[in-house]
């Protein structure tokens, strides 16, 4: 006989979670004993759905209580399985385009296809991100021009409201930055941001996932630094631009502060230098020239009397060197029509910001010349956010070594994946993210099902089913236009 409990955690600190727990109760318990058990909190040691087929030993009235206590003491200390076991943590690092896509896919589709056997575990999704908001940095070149073009509430979108529809599943969102990843212990150490993140993480660590190791990581004495075990890990930590204006650098308030500071300087600036001939640099120079130097564009383009001097410095012999030549030529023609002065085959070798009392910046160039400008915007590419990963799973450029077909990180052990800008397969285009999401989620599902089948038949009885699981393969998309 099994008592059935349904509990709902709706505290303000955590995303609401619903649990359904089956608790074994002796068939010969008296009505008073049964009533007492029903009033107690559910006990989650043994007693998952896999116990339902077992017939309890018959008890007589005189020895029923003692026998029941002996049975409970015998199973005490055994690792529980099934519904009574601790959930296994599916950890996603990063909550931008890749991380959020994977998280919603898991809660919408993947979780419904799991628990294929009676011994299968429960799963808990944990999303770790240093920012509570996603930055729509595709619009950053326009957002940096002035506060009226793209409002902060439109550029920075809160993450949690999008998960309200998933309240029936076990998941939590923790604001923090991953500092280290231990691929052998299968844990991540997180520096938490704010008291809410500390409370949420402590609640996760109260019921530490057993994952694949017999012992769980100890809770840190420092409440701001906590370690979380993972059963599966998806790294979506992306990349960061060299400019604070073009990507998140920690919490979104840091980027809002950088934008506000830049906006306050733009109006009084007479010269602006944009460095970088790629997509970000070309669009930033174009947006600045369009909205700062012209009062109107339709039906007639009207240039203001005292336009700002806008320079674009590129390290190549043309704009947009990674795209087709005709695209770069068209972009350069449009920039020149807007009054942007372009310098090719020159790199900025050193920057001295606010080098004098006027707050101007001095730029040292590769042709042994110098430029003095009121504002300087580096659009010289991005760097991967992979500092937390061990060196053994990073390439020479510090990108995570990722299998370009399966999105697995083979060197990091089972059920470890990576997509997006931080992965070695990526060309740092957003299309590389969205095209990889179906692949990584399909292969994650395969790996989780394979684990469930091995638990159900540890001596290899389900090997044919495991071998029949087919991986999805990623195909790189060429972006040249």
From TrEMBL:
<dbReference type="GO" id="GO:0004174">
    <property type="term" value="F:electron-transferring-flavoprotein dehydrogenase activity"/>
</dbReference>
<comment type="similarity">
    <text>Belongs to the FAD-dependent oxidoreductase family.</text>
</comment>
<protein>
    <recommendedName>
        <fullName>FAD/NAD(P)-binding domain-containing protein</fullName>
    </recommendedName>
</protein>
<keyword id="KW-0560">Oxidoreductase</keyword>
<dbReference type="InterPro" id="IPR023753">
    <property type="entry name" value="FAD/NAD-binding_dom"/>
</dbReference>
<dbReference type="GO" id="GO:0005737">
    <property type="term" value="C:cytoplasm"/>
</dbReference>
<dbReference type="Pfam" id="PF07992">
    <property type="entry name" value="Pyr_redox_2"/>
</dbReference>
<keyword id="KW-0274">FAD</keyword>
<feature type="region of interest" description="Disordered">
    <location>
        <begin position="25"/>
        <end position="81"/>
    </location>
</feature>
<dbReference type="GO" id="GO:0050660">
    <property type="term" value="F:flavin adenine dinucleotide binding"/>
</dbReference>
<feature type="domain" description="FAD/NAD(P)-binding">
    <location>
        <begin position="89"/>
        <end position="427"/>
    </location>
</feature>
<dbReference type="InterPro" id="IPR036188">
    <property type="entry name" value="FAD/NAD-bd_sf"/>
</dbReference>
<keyword id="KW-0285">Flavoprotein</keyword>
